Amino acid sequence: MHAGIIFFLVILGSILFHIFTPWYWTDIASNWKGMDDTITLTFWVGGGVFVAVCLFMIYCVFKFSYKEGRKVEYKPEDKKLEKILTVATTLGVAALLAPGLIIWNQYVNVPKNSIEIDVMAWQWGWQYRLPGNDGKLGTTKVVNINDDNPFGINMDDPFGRDDVMVQSDIINLENNRPVKILLRSVDVLHNWYVPQFRAKMDAVPGVVTYYWFEPNKVGEYEVLCAEYCGVGHYAMRGGVEVQDSNSYQQWLGEQETFSELLAKQNKEIETKKVAKNNSNIEKVIYKEEK
Amino acid sequence: MSDEYENKSGYQAQSSEALTGSAGSTPDMDYVRPAELPEQDLYHGHTFLTKWVFCQDAKVIGVQYFLTAVFTGIVGLILSWLMRLQLGFPGLAGFITAEHYYQFVTMHGMIMVVYFLTALFLGGFGNYLIPLMVGARDMVFPYVNMLSFWMFFVAVAILMASFFVPGGPTGAGWTLYPPQTILEGTPGSGMGILLMLVSLALFVIGFTMGGLNYMITVLQARTRGMTLMRMPLTVWGIFTATVLAMLAFPALLVSAIMMTLDKVIGTSFFMPTILKAGEVLEYGGGSPILFQHLFWFFGHPEVYIVALPAFGIVSDLISVHARKNIFGYRMMVWAIVGIGALSFFVWAHHMYVSGMNPWFGFFFATTTLIIAVPTAMKVYNWILTLWRGNIRINTVMLWCLGFIVTFVNGGITGIFLGNVSVDVPLSDTYFVVAHFHMVMGIAPVMVIMGAIYHWFPLITGRLLNETLGKWHFWATFLGAYSIYFPMHYLGFIGVPRRYYEMYDSPYMTSAVGMNEFISLAAFLVGAAQFILIFNIIKTLKTGKPAPKNPWKANSLEWHTSTQPPEHGNFGERLPVVHRWPYDFSVPGSKDDFIPQTTPPSEVVHTKVEKT
C-alpha cells in the first residue's frame, strides 16, 4: 500500500513543482512566441498523458495488489480497445506535430526585409560584420584571415569594401527589425545562442548556416555558445544590445568599415615605414656620435 | 495461445517424442513437429581456464559480460559524481579543471551508453537468457561467442588505458564531433582519442560476433514448438535490438576509421579548411556534418538497442508478477519490430540545429513523432496488463513501476525535442540532458535492477533480500527522479549543457540552489547502489535458497533440469513448447500459471484462448 502512496506523492509533487517553480523561461524578447506556445501545448497534452498513465498505474496498485485467490481477468487481446488507443494517440501526436511544423516553416523562411549579420566564431570568441550602404555582405574565405583582414573578406569583392566591422563580442541590434544571422566558424563547431530570443543554430566550419529572429524588446542580453567547442566552451560568451532606431543608427555610424580599416592600415604601414626610417636615421646619428 | 487442436495424426508417425509427457490423454492435442536437426555438440571445459575464463557456455559468457559491464558502469558512476561535484559546488574540488571536467563528461557518456548499457543488455542478458528462453542448449557458435566477450574485454581495457596516457582520455564529448575532437584545444586530442576510436572499433567487431550468435540462435535454434509468436518478449526485444545493432554499428565503425585517418595520416573526410592560432591547417574540403549524419545513423538506433531489450524484459517481469498475461502480445511484438524499423529514419532529429539543410527538419520531425505511436501503445499495454491482475508488490514489480513512471516522463519530453521547432530553444540545454537520462539512463536501469532481482535466484539459486531490495529501489527511484525532473527546468531557463561553470550568468545564479540539490541527490543515488552490492554479497553467503521457479513463471528458463541451469541447460531432453509464456490465471486452471512446456492434454478444462 505504501508503494502506491509514494508513487502518488511523486506525481503530485511533479505537478506542484511545475506550478510553483521559480525556474522557468526567461522573458521572451523575440518573435518566436510560437515556440513557447507549442511548448505550453505539449506540456498540457504530454503532461496530461503522463499524469493519466501514472494515476491509472497507481490505481491498479491500490486496487489489484496481491491477494490469494483473486480472480484475474484473462484477456490476451482487445482489438477494439487497441484500435481506439492507436487512433487517439495518432490524433494527439498529429495535433502536436502540426504547430511544430508550421513554426519550423517560418523558421527556415527568412523575411525579405531582414538585415544580414555575419557572425564569425572561433576558439573562443565572436565578432560581427554588417552590410554597408549597398546592403550586401562581401564574400569571405578562411585563408584570407589575418591581422589586416580580420574577417577574411575577398579583396576583389566590391560588396565587401563598405562592410561594417564590429571587432567585439558585443553586437547591437535594432528593435523590431528582423535579422538574419549568418553563422560561420573558422575552426570548430559553435552555436550563437541568446536564451531570450529562443532561436539557435550551429556555426559549422566550411559552410555558412543561418537563422533569423526579430528582437522586440530593448535591452542587453548575454550570448552563450551552445555547441561544445573545446575547453573554453563555457567561457565563450558574447553580448547583444537591442536598441531603438535612433540609438542604433548612431551606434552604427560610429563603427568602422572595411575600407576605413584598410585606409588606416595603409596609413599605419606608412607611419611604420617613416618610423623605421627615423629609427635608421637615429641609428646612423648614434653611430656617428660614437 | 496454445496448440491448434486440429487433428494432425497423419504426421504422427514421424514424431518420436510427440507423445512424451501426455500419458493417458488424447495424443492429437499435444502434437509438436519432430526435430529436424540432430542435437548440438557442446564443448565442456574441464580446466579452470576453459570452464571459467575462456568459457564457451553462453551463461558464463553472459555473467562475464555482465560483470565487465558493471565494472565500467561503476567507473561511469564515479565520473558522474565528479561532474556533479563541480556543477553543484564549483571550486570545491580544486583538481577538477575544465579539461578534466570535459574528460569526465565524455567518458561518462561513452561508457554508460556503449560499454555499460549495450553490453549489459545484449552481452549480459542476451547471452544468459536467449538460449534458455528459446529452449536451446547454447548459442549456435559457442567459440565465436567466447571470442566476442574477450574482444569486448580488450576494448574495455583499451578504453580504461586511455585514462593513463599522456594528455588523458578524450574530452570531445561522447558524440566525438569533429573538427574539435582531433584538434588541440580539446583535451585528449592525441592518444586519448585514438585509443577511444580503437576501442570502439574493437567493440563493434566483438559485438558483431556476439550479435550473429544472438540472431541465428533465435532464428535457427529454437526448440520444437517454440514458434516466433510464442517467444517471450524479452527475446523479441533482444533479438530486434541485435538486428538494429548489426545495421547501425557499421556506421560507427566507418566513422571511427575515417576519423582515425583524418587524425593519423591527415585525410580530410570531416575536416574543412581550418584556421587555428593564426595558422591555416593542412585540411580542406571535408564535412563535419557528414560525421554527425554517420554518428547519429548509429546513435539513434543505439537508443533503441538499449530500449528494446528493456521493453521486452519489463513486459515479462510485469506479466509474471501481475499474474496476468501480457496485454496485446501481438501488438507488443509488432511495436518492437516497428519501432526498430522506424528508428533508422529518425536520426537527424539530433541535428535540427546542426546546420544541415533545414528542410530535412520537416521529414525527421514527422518520422520522430510517428515513432511515438507504437511506443505509446507499449506503455498502454503495460498498464493494461496491471489492470485486473493480481499484482505482487515486490521489489521486482517496484522496479517495473519505477520504469513506467520514468519512461513515460522521458518519452513525453522526447515529444518536445522531436518536434523540430520546439527543439530549437531546448536543444543543447539541460532539458536534453534531463530527457535522455530519464528515458535511456534511468528507465533502462530500472529494468536492469528489476531483472537482477528477478533472475538472481535462477543464476545463483538464492533469493535476494526483499527488505534491502525495497530500500535500494526507493533510494534509487526517488533520488534519480529528483535529479532529472527538476533538471528539465534548468533547460527552460536556457542553461546550456557541457558548461564547466557559469560564472555570474543570470541564468545560472538563479539556479545555484537547484544545482546543489541535484548534486546531493546524485551522490545519494550512487551510494544507494552499494545496497545492492551488499545485498548480493550477503545473499551469496547466507541468503535463502530459492525454491525451483520461485516466481511461478512460465518461460523455459525456469524449467531447466537444475537450478541454476548447468551447461547444456535442459538435461537429457530438450523441452517441447506447447503455448506462449503468458498463460497466467487461465480460467479453469488449478494453478495460476501454465508453463510453456505443459501440453494441452494436461490442462484440458482450461479456457486457453487460441489467438
Question: What can you see in these coordinates?
Answer:
The complex is a heterodimer of chains A (290) and B (611). Chain A is an alpha+beta fold and 290 residues long. Chain A folds into 2 domains: 2-63 and 78-108; 115-266, Sandwich (Immunoglobulin-like), CATH 2.60.40. Chain A is 42% helix and 19% strand. Chain A contains 5 helices and 11 strands; from the N terminus they run H-H-H-E-E-E-E-E-E-E-E-E-E-H-E-H. In chain A, strand 1 and strand 2 form a beta hairpin. Chain A is elongated. The model of chain A has no long low-confidence stretch (mean pLDDT 89). With 611 residues, chain B is an all-alpha fold. Helices cover 58% and strands 1% of the residues of chain B. In chain B, helix 4 (142-161) runs antiparallel to helix 5. The model of chain B is unreliable at 1-25 (pLDDT under 50). Classes of the chains: A alpha+beta (290), B mainly alpha (611). At the A-B interface, helix 1, helix 2, helix 3, strand 7 and strand 9 of A face helix 3, strand 1, helix 8, helix 9 and helix 10 of B.
**Helix content, binned percent of chain B:** 55-70%
Number of helices of chain B: 15
Number of domains of chain A: 2
Average pLDDT over all residues of chain A: 89
What's the N-to-C terminus distance of chain B? 5 Å
What percent strand of chain B?
under 5%
Largest beta sheet of chain B: what is the strand line-up?
1-2
